[in-house]
Amino acid sequence: MHYIVFDLEWNQSQNPASSLPELPFEIIEIGAVKLDKNGRIISRFSELVRPSAYPSVNPIIKKVTKLDSAQLKCAPEFPSVCADFLEWCGEDPVFCTWGSGDLMVLRSNIDYHGMEYEFHSPLTYYDVQKLYSLQFADGKERVALETAVEQLVLPHADDFHRALQDAYYTACVWQKLDLKRFGAYLSVDYYALPAEGEYWNFDFGTYTKTVTGSYETKAAAMHDDEICRVRCSRCGEYCDMLVPWFAVSSRYYLTLADCPSHGKMQAKLRWKSLPGGEVFAVKTVKSANKERAEKVRKKYKAFLKGVAKSEREGDENGTSEDGTE
Predict the structure, then answer these.
(1) Are 41 and 138 part of one and the same domain?
(2) Which residues pair with 280 in a beta bridge?
């Protein structure tokens, strides 16, 4: 087993109207470093890729990467480079990236070119950006790779925004992480989702995560009993609902539940959109101390006030509940 810390540079259409839905980002460079189980760099990979969907390099991409169409014209095409990269990764690689986008882009390019590669399902990986925040910040803030390198006072002679250099810098940050404390916090790649009626369940010690398949709408998802019910993050038993699910924003819902054995639990549904307009949900459940439970209750009260205000304004405008005049 090896850790594969990789980075991609990609191109995109200069005209959003001509962007391919199945390939919004086309890879033009793959860079990676391979680490052994002790975190030592033992090998490197670096290749340019000749684009085919978007042969002209977007001026913004050119400015950031310093790559232009002439440089890429003589490079091998993606299937050849990707096959070499995946062979170089070896069996059962543990992928590590800065942020959550690179694996999804890699898999979309693989599918676009009709290549076959069997990723683990579900596919987990290390988001070094997230782990850096957990160890050195508040766990929520996300900083640029360059910022992390500067904050850790790591040597950086080469420029950023080229694949191999960024993969190397990400590996240097990785080497500074306390994996005994934060190594359990794997991320999940959402490029492929569970089949209909199935769920991915993860236990990260301090919280649990459930990933659903796709639904046409949020309303349809909320008719799924397994999504709506809350299991205790410690024993897995169903909890009693203390507060119904409510929308904090269009992106996530909250609720408060109670486990007879382990006390109050806070659950969150984060909604994610798919290209076809469908949605899927990521449910997280963790213990709620008195302060956290009170915050959920306050947010619920604010939600009810917002609903009441909206209904009053609807009445004042002469609109009934079903939207008719």
Answers:
(1) yes
(2) 272
